[in-house]
Amino acid sequence: MSQPATIAMVEDDEGHARLIEKNLRRAGVQNEIVPLANGALAISFLFGPDGTGLVNKGRPLLVLLDLNLPDMSGIDILKRLKENAYLRVSPVVVLTTTDDKSEIQRCYDLGCNVYITKPVDYEKFANAIQQLGLFVSVMQVPEAI
Question: Is this model's pTM higher than 0.85 or not?
Fold first, then answer.
């Protein structure tokens, strides 16, 4: 039996990060969640010290990716993930406040698997994350090859 996917949560807003984790847990998601507060931390975790992504080979990985990060665009991280020989199979869920149609299309063109716009309203946001958690709990994630 394969190991459960590690969830790399790339989110710079600490309040959003807590809300996301809390509501994923509420939905029954038991996976390890690694909070990454900016692009540099995300790149370091995902691609490892040598920048190849080999550090995650054989490890199922699901990436929750905010696009609006303080030090780089989530689009750049998405592009690098999908161009990487090891990480390109890892599902990427873009979870962001941006609802611009061209930005949504760009993310899908680059290989994101799901695009979710964060609702501004707290209750709607919490509900959206719980629904995402139900989806994550039944999702099959391949190992990085």
Answer: yes
